[in-house]
Specification:
The complex is a heterodimer of chains A (about 300) and B (about 550). Chain A has a domain of about 190 residues: MetI-like (MetI-like fold), CATH 1.10.3720.10. The two termini of chain A are about 15 Å apart. Chain A is elongated and about 75 Å long. Helices cover about 75% and strands about 0% of the residues of chain A. With about 300 residues, chain A is mainly α. With about 550 residues, chain B is of the alpha/beta class. Among the domains of chain B are: about 180 residues, P-loop containing nucleotide triphosphate hydrolases (Rossmann fold), CATH 3.40.50.300; about 200 residues, Rossmann fold. Helix content of chain B is about 35%, strand content about 25%. Chain B contains 20 helices and 22 strands. In chain B, the strands form five sheets. Chain B has a six-stranded mixed beta sheet with strand order 6-7-8-3-9-10, with helices on both faces. A six-stranded mixed beta sheet of chain B has the order 16-17-18-13-19-20, with helices on both faces. In chain B, helix 4 packs across helix 5 and helix 4 packs parallel to helix 7. Classes of the chains: A mainly alpha (about 300), B alpha/beta (about 550). Chains A and B meet through helix 2, helix 9, helix 10 and helix 13 of A and strand 16 and helix 14 of B.
Chain lengths: ~300, ~550
Amino acid sequence: MAETDTHAAPVAGPAQRRGRNLSLRRLAPVLAGGILLLIVAAALLAGALAPHDPLQMMPSQRLKPPSEAYPLGTDAFGRDLLSRILYGARISLMVGVGVTVITVAVGLPLGLLAGFFRTLDSVLMRIMDGMMAIPSLLLAVAIVSLSGASIWTVLMAITIPEVPRIVRLVRSIVLSAREEPYVEAAISLGSSLPRILRRHLMPNTLAPLIVQGTYVCASAILTEAILSFLGAGISTETPSWGNIMAEGRMYFQIRPSLIFWPGLLLSVCILSINLLGDSLRDILDPRLKQRGAER
Amino acid sequence: MSAPILSVRDLVVGIGPDAASPIVLDGVSLDIAAGETLCLVGESGSGKSVTSLAVMGLLPRGALVARSGRVLLEGEDLLAADRRRLRALRASRMAMIFQEPMTALNPVMPVGRQIDEVLRAHTSLTPAERRRRVLSMLEQVHLPDVARVFASYPHQLSGGQRQRIMIAMALILEPKLLIADEPTTALDVTTQKEILRLVHELQEKQGTSVLFITHDMGVVAEIADRVCVMHQGTVVETDTVDAILRAPRKDYTRRLLSAVPSLTPRAPRPVASAEIVLETVELGKVYARRRFLRRAEETVAAEAVSFALRRGRTLGIVGESGSGKSTVARCVMRLVDPTAGAIRVKGRDISSLSRSALQPHRKRIQMVFQDPYRSLNPRVTVGESIAEGPTNYGVPRDAAFARARSLLEIVGLPPDAITRYPHQFSGGQRQRIAIARALAMEPDVLVADEAVSALDVSVQAQVLALLDDIQERLGVSLLFITHDLRVAAQICDDIAVMQKGRIVEYGAASEVLTAPRQAYTRQLLDAAPGRDWDFARFMPREPAAPAAAPVADVAKPSGGH
């Protein structure tokens, strides 16, 4: 943040009038980042933080209200809700990060090539159009019911519909960037194709890709929760936010906290990721950066 | 002289309202009398556009603020006027035309309705009267078939026609003051000539005062009554056009005028080598737009282009936009694939080589692009940019960087530039970097596509001198593509004039520019603004230069006609 501060400072006129706006703009990513850090830390330290084993059933302690031993109460099988939520964060984050990494790893090279080669473009983009036409939830349900519920099938099911979005984004940037004289200069200098793609075209895509990545991450976490809630996700005994909510649904009238807490955490987590994405977009906006760079 | 129509007094404009922040205009004063044309000249960043925007009340809100001074339009202070008053004054008392008529017009509205809007906002005429008035205005700006033009969208008109629409829109209410901000810079010379004539004609008819902003001394010589020279936000000197051009009092004005290249070609150079390094034979490029189930639509961008370039010589390709000169350059670079003919580099035809077969020949020809802001990758250091080419051909990194350092010295940049990024340099410096990058390949031919067109005249002169110096030292041949006959006159040995994809005249520069054989070349020369002035010598140009006598020394380029 310090860097953007020093850049923003000399932009006197408009910046001053938008002073309040600007401080809010600075606060949002810090807040969102802080919350996300907390969630990540909680997920990583779940083993140490959780008061109980998330899988251990205590039939005598079913649907207990919050107490000292069970800070958020217990579920229908007498499992500690807090412990399950903490371990559930692991699954959610794993799905979010996993899907993002795989989509970018697949989508970035495909997008670069599609943007650069006309013929490949027309073939590849039709395939991508086809993939985009598949409703993601339906595909996920189909894949999971075909090959069984595991974290890998869930990852695949969520990744496949996201890939075309990344390919389209990267391709559109490459399409305009390849017309830049510096790319033509690189061709004239005899630079090899991988080098042109890596050095002159790819850097243009990174900023929008990071921003898009955060949205992919958020939507993956949400989709995983939906899949679990529908019973098409990760096997039911594994704690994930969606699973916890799915099981809690039946006891909603007795113990609403079973849905409230994982739901709240899910919302806060996704809101934070989206806010972070928005702020990153503002920070990485080439026009804003340009203004800083001119100083 | 009667009371001036516009009077600007001690105008100070700064960045933002904060008194401590930098100032863009520092005490600008100027007067324009009724019916007079005042040319505001200066290089980029001199504050000429800011001055005009301040007059129109169009300074970007919050970013630029008039801090003190007065802008009086017929005695009324515009800086004190509120927004509603300014809106009423615009169009009715003062109007403005801009450089790029495409972006100044609304692309999704017929141009007739756009002009009509001015009448609707400022008059209480009936629709029928308004239409009659718009049509008559379109006739006054000499547009053909006015009823059709009235219903046309901007993209259906040419650049010159769009600028005529802008002029019609600006002058329909017969304002007292017309501000023209580089209105002809984006146009071809022949179109520019017509637009300048049109502005002058309407000015006579309506008695309008014109504040004409330009960087082009040629245009100044054509249209100005008085000239106001600006530099870094201040007025350097204001005088009649004759006084400024013949006897400038200030050093800056002298420097500015001296930098304007002369239309008189430079003395022919002796031919040092007969070796032909680059030759095209009947080169052609046809763009075909494939249509489903229909015959392909073909556009001929270049046809039967033949020329030969000898070692150490400069061949200029001149022509207006759309003449195919850039297509030829890009074909020669193999950035586009030609559809006919041959390109011989040192005798070897490269026109149909595959990507990999082309690789060893790429380094023989290098290119310097028009826009130095886009031809360098902003994320790559200057050193990396220059070293990229040599490393592609197996030069070790250290050696490539050592070469980059010595090249930076040759192009006149400090050695520490090597670790810096392009945005830390000015346009002229960036163009030097681009030249260094091209030279790093030790090419036989340097293709310069409008390489100095985006630069201010003083910088332009320096870059031209640099190219000349490099040619002298390294013996590289130059293929110089330009629309500017003055630049061509100063750097080219031979000139090929292109029109509609074909070379219409090809010969020694001294012949083509002083005794053109083709009507089109004559037309181009005639349209060159300020063709009768030799700005650097502060006097009118000698008609039909007899100095260019030793024409016989110049070897006729082969393949010409």
